[in-house]
Amino acid sequence: MIVQRVPVLAPSARQTLHDAGAVILTGLPNSPDSLPVASALLFGTSLRELYPHRTRRSVDGGIVGLHADSFDVVVDIAGKPVRRRHPDEDHVLVLLASQAPYGGQSFVLDAHEFTDSLDAELKDFLTGTDVDLYGRWAQTRGLPATPRVGRHIEYTRTGRRITRRTDGVVPLHRDPDAERVTALLARFDAEVDRVQRTLPRIRLDEGELLVLDNYRCWHGRDAHTGSRTVHIQTVRTDNA
User: Fold this and answer.
1) How many domains does the chain have?
2) SS3 label, residue 65
3) Contact, 38 vs 28, CB < 8 A?
């Protein structure tokens, strides 16, 4: 998937994101403060929730495969439950703070188009089978003990499609169909790995900001040598 670069103040930035599902914004300071600024410019009054930004620094990092950003994290702050992440964050913003000396190129996939191209058995599985979306991470601090049950492809009450991708998926606890679900998850992973190898690579410049419709597009990055740093923020809009 080719992602278009657009100046952050250009009137076309919001429309490009809407039409293509992804856009690279230019012209912002190389600072994590640019994340909420870009969110406000892109989404305006439709912006509903802005989750805490996180900085990711990796040294000689391995490949990060195609995924949609989602996580279900609620923490206790002074006796009050506070949601730090949401399983259905509908947009993600990634600002490249420092580029690795070698590697680290990004790649993006239109997940709606990709999953529509799969064979009938896999499509039926993705749309018709409940799974535990984060069961593999059940012991991670902050994650709820209650399984997060959902399907890879679902629709919001307003008809917006969500195509999920997480490496935390497992069959439901004591699912009598667990063997078949595990086999189909493995087939799905193989198809994702196959298409990932064919995607065009995007080398972001430092300070550029990749914005994605998190319901429609998956993203990842290649392995790299040396240090690489990004700032990430997920948001929810009133379309979520």
Assistant:
1) 1
2) strand
3) yes
